[in-house]
Design a protein that fits this description.
- By secondary structure, the protein is an alpha+beta fold.
- It contains 16 helices and 23 strands.
- It has a 7-stranded mixed β-sheet.
- Helix 9 crosses helix 14, helix 10 runs antiparallel to helix 12 and helix 12 crosses helix 13.
- The mean pLDDT is about 95.
Amino acid sequence: MAFIGSLDQGTTSTRFMLFDEAGKVVASAQKEHEQIFPQAGWVEHNPNEIRDRVDQVIDQAMVKASAVPSDLAAMGITNQRETTMLWDRVTGDPIGNAIVWQDVRTSNICNELAVEHGQDRFRAKTGLPIATYFAGPKIAWLLDNTDGLRARAEAGEIAFGTMDSWVVWNLTGGPRGGLHITDVTNASRTLLMDLATLQWDSDLLGAVGVPRAVLPEIRPSVQVYGEATGRLAGVPIAGILGDQQAALFGQTCFSAGEAKNTYGTGCFMLLNTGNDPVPSEAGLLTTVAYQLDGEAPVYALEGSIAIAGALVQWLRDNLQMIDSAEEIETLAASVQDNGGVYIVPAFNGLFAPYWRDDARGVIAGLTRYANRGHIARATLEAVAFQTKEVLDAMYLDSGVELAALKVDGGMVGNELLMQFQADLLDVPVVRPAVSETTALGAAYAAGLAVGFWPDFDALRSNWSISKRWEPNMNAERRAAEYASWKKAVTKSFDWV
């Protein structure tokens, strides 16, 4: 068996990749799916479209590699986290669209949960603040806003899942015996799982209003769960990781103190903190990084930024300032600096370290001097500034000073952004040879479970550098730029 398969079900697209023993990409296929915006602040996906995209990309990648199912030692799953859906256990039909992690319709539910004991009411048990980001309140909203659904859920007729659960259920037979499972990393993003026990917590379920009967079984991240049916019949499904934990795994950040930052639709920095969860006092999330079968879990601190690559998409699709995402680097490089312009992309509020649902996006510092180039440059710099805020918070919580930042995701091909990031952080920024580390991490998890790779050392030996950016900005300018950014952020507060 020559390959490990990896299914990466992301926020904007679904991809299937095949990796060889050296961790190199053998074949890849990717398809986008529709972003549905029913009203301001609402974001949805069509689960049936995503299920179809899964089938299509698997077929395409297998054809590209001239592979058959028996060529795959195993496959792993990684997914957009927190995106929430319900489906009928008998028919397999989704109950409406999935509510995407960016969606803020649960703000009233979250405000009610926080009214007496504050936003950190559940933090000691879950590692999370009460926020619209997480899956639990989304489940409650769906149950309370669909006629008769709560009674059906309590009767065991309805299943909940983040997208990993939906994908695995369909790959393993769907209504005909499909596995209804999730892993510890995805479960840790629901506000419903106890970080210490790694189990659904009755007190949390009661408080949020989620019946236990809808929930999947929580499993380790690295384990043989079962075999696929259909187009990949007989292939073991042996790894599940939420996308950001998968990127940490793909970057081989297996030791406490190692960190990575993924530049995708959002931006997500994770710091491995070892076998002990580190409570955050600085606005970060305490989350499960991964768990090997039969072993203690490994935890992480996470800084979650809602809008990164999505800001470039907004420039392309809404403002039509560019025709493709790649054009932004050329446009941004047409000017020497940001011209005093700062963009705070709080389209649906701000995530770490602020957790402000009341914030909305602003463009600050506009003068007649500003042009398209300055807007483009401010767009890229917004991603780097938000990352700087998260890294500062990580230092406050952990005391760990990074020697370098490992980066991955769709935006790391942007040289201007990567150089500005190194300048702003004053540490080197390092891009690996395989930049799609999310898919690679899911492959690594599955490969470890079936012995395709023997241990972490084998995975570390696969990791290599593509490019390294050294900081090249004086301290005075760095401080001035960051102070202006901080001022711009305050202008986004209290908008709704």
